[in-house]
Prior knowledge:
By secondary structure, the protein is of the alpha/beta class. α7 (183-189) links the parallel β3 (173-177) and β4 (195-197). It has helices spanning 17-28, 35-41, 46-66, 110-122, 141-149, 155-170, 183-189, 206-209, 223-235, 254-259, 261-264; strands at 78-84, 127-132, 173-177, 195-197, 240-241, 245-246, 274-275. The strands form two sheets. A five-stranded parallel sheet has the order 1-2-3-4-5. It has a two-stranded parallel sheet with strand order 6-7. It folds into two domains: 17-66, no CATH class; 78-276, TIM Barrel. Residues 87, 89-91, 94, 96-97, 133-134, 218, 220, 282-283 line the site of iron/sulfur cluster.
Amino acid sequence: MSDMPAPRTPEQPPPPASALRRALARARDGKTLDPGEAATLMHARGEQLATLVARAGRVRDAGLAAAGRPGVITYSRKVFIPLTRLCRDRCGYCTFATVPGRLDSPYLSPDEVLAIARQGAALGCKEALFTLGDRPEDRWRQARDWLGARGYDDTLSYVRAMAIGVLEETGLLPHLNPGVLTWQDFARLKPVAPSMGMMLETTATRLFTDQGGPHYGSPDKDPAVRLRVLEDAGRSAVPFTTGILIGIGETLAERPNSTTWPRRSRWPGWCSARRRGSRPRPT
Ligand code: SF4
């Protein structure tokens, strides 16, 4: 449980009715919306909201048809493998990361990893989702000692070894979520994992720089760093999932700035937004 104060979301006045009508008309006409228009549309209610949702549905359906699977939304059955719950970051809303004293071991052992993967495979999973904290060895001596005693230089080396083990022993496809990665990390992990992921979370830098903010003191939560990771994933041709967090203290205006970044930057892998309170998927 975090002892940080709950994040404050600055109050914002609603937009003029004319701005809302104009943005709605542009959405209805299929025009590309900028972040300001998208922020305005977040104030739609009642009939205007129904119109907006209907238009969004048509955009979704057109995308599915263009992809050759009209009306079909796919998903991947996956089993979560929480390789370590230690992390060097201190996100104020995190319910996943903990301290070494609360764990029997800093990392799951190879046998534990394989046991989880085999259970998942037996239940019909196709994918093993490695969830873990960001570079815990930078913060926790127990993590460094555990890895060193087993011949691993760092957490990513252990992730790589376990991905190989799961792939070879169970046939599940490893999907890696180890947090911030460099392009060298992508090169090292790409041969052992068909896909990876990291939540963009937010482009609101103030949530990282302002004392008391949910990302204050978490070096991996600088939006500039995370945007660089997404760009490197694209350049490295790594299939990559991402998304945003909602309800961590961002304003309504900051959400569309985050969600439209992939389109504005022509990033190819945008997939989903995630609502705070859904199943933890640490980054
Ligand atoms: S980076 Fe992820 S695991 Fe680490 S504290 Fe933040 S939310 Fe938790």
